[in-house]
Amino acid sequence: MSIAPAELAFTGFRRGDGRVGVRNHVLVLSPTGLTSAAAARVASLVEGTLAVTTGYGRGQVGADADLQFRTLAGLATNPNVAAVVVMAAADDISQRYADAIALAQKPVVALSLPGAREDVLTLVDQGVRAATRFVREASALRREAFALSALTVAVECGHSDASSGIVANPLVGRMMELLVAAGGRAMFSETVEWTGAEHLLAARAADAGVAARILAAVAAREKLYRDAGADVRAQNPGPQNRAGGITTLEEKALGAIAKGGRQPIRGVLAPAQAPPAGSGLFLMDTPFFSPESMTAMVAAGAQLVVFTTGAGNSYASAIAPTLKVSANAQTCARLIEQIDFAAADVDAGGGFEAMAAKGLAQLVEVAGGTLTFGEIVGEGAEVVSRLGPSM
Amino acid sequence: MTNVHRLHPDDDVATTLVALPRGGVVRIAGPGPGPALELTLADDIPAGHKFALRALPAGSRVRKYGEAIGVLRADASAGAWVHEHNLASDVGPSSTRAQPSSSR
After folding, report:
1. Which ipTM value was assigned to this complex?
2. Distances, alpha carbon A309 to alpha carbons A118, A223, A325, in Å
3. A10, A210, B15, B76: which sits with the fewest CB atoms below 10 Å from its CB?
4. Phi, psi of A313 (to 5 degrees)
């Protein structure tokens, strides 16, 4: 089924680095745990702002420190963000983030506790004033029409049941094939949930190097379990999965990978690593827990998340609108204020292709400003993974 | 829409998206051009759960999506519920499956 070219456009905000936002958040970023409560207060005081915080930020080393910086800086430079107020416990930390944000041509103010002479009330006052000015500037920006090639979409599944693997994930997979055909980028993650289906992913890899990276990523997670004296099968499938008819990890994986479609896999990304230019489907090697996995993909620049569920799952990204899709008829009927796209009756929706086209059209609507239930209810959060102990 | 799904012609199990009672007769057509299959359910099958399409012996690999989803720990008759009580994962440390290789 073909989609009229007019529908293959969304409206968004052009950013200084050339990317396109589907939301216009002013971010209050606290990269140090000492300032996170203050950042949350600033966000609660200024309409149109969003706090992204961490409980850590000191005493991190090596890959753990790198991931913390790459993820928080990636979230702050996500195209859905119009401007950023950085609030940190030290000037050098604040400045390092501000430099990365300025490099992405985004307005930024760097605040710190020393800059407020260690008075957190002064810091909040400075943050509120800076955020207030940024919100006014951001409100002057207007949406323009863009082709779907400007979109990067993250796909996630949570509390899956049998309907996820059989209906919802293949449907979203088809949406992602249409997106990629239109020049966009799609990605999915949760490496453990490739286990038992990794041979199918590897067979779709763009080249032998990508295939090897897919298999190595799965093997590495399995080794992490083994080294910890744990079993990769112990937490997967989870209780909602098993109640919904998913018996084994490989059965879960075979259903989960359908959410990327059947298209070639262009590459494997590290957490929070931006995909290269051009269209395609990418995998990202992340933890399977949605808060960490989705944050990593949004930090890589995804402007939207499509999230399939069987039993229901309210979690959403704070920065990227998260479209909830379910093909479980009971869930669609029961969770009216959670499921944005009810896909339980594909036949009534005109069949698989028509339903996938509708799903993509709804995603375009959300890109253009229609709110998801997750945004209205306020379920959004961002959670940065830790890779090692603090010193 | 159909609520009972055989996802691949090679599959050993079908999945029902609605609860079905023991003794109920289900007719499964497709995928593919093969003849429709009719069988009587040997157990109550909860929504989302699987049942055997034919008698499956203990120790056999069970296929869904045309791929192995685990190994049967007990015999399952045609129409029997297949879930945690009789099906075990075959990934992880005790895996008997061929390890995928990057050389294709």
Report:
1. 0.93
2. 45, 28, 6
3. A210
4. -165, 115
Q: Are the Cβ atoms of A244 and B48 closer than 8 angstroms?
A: yes
Mutation pick from A226, A251, A268 vs chain B, by most beta carbons of B within 10 Å, is: A251
Indicate if the alpha-carbon torsion angle B68, A251, B71, B101 is positive or negative: positive
How confident is the model over B69-98, as a mean pLDDT?
A: 89
Strand segments (E) across chain B: 4-5, 13-16, 25-28, 37-40, 50-52, 61-64, 67-72, 81-82, 87-88
pLDDT for B99: 58
Q: Grade residue B33 by pLDDT with cuts at 50, 70 and 90.
A: confident
Which of A164, A171, A199, A167 lies closest to A310, judged by CA? A164
Residue pairs between chains A and B whose CB atoms are closer than 8 Å: 105
Return the sign of the alpha-carbon dihedral for residues A94, A95, A96, A98: positive
Of B5, B69, B103, nearest to A166 by CB-CB distance is: B5
CB contact under 8 A, A249 and B47: no
CB-based contacts of A240, cutoff 8 Å, min separation 6 = A159, A160, A161, A310, A311
Instruction: Determine, for residues A249 and B103 on separate chains, whether the beta-carbon distance falls below 8 Å.
Output: no
> What pTM does this model have?
0.96
Angstrom distance (rounded) from CA A55 to CA B13: 47
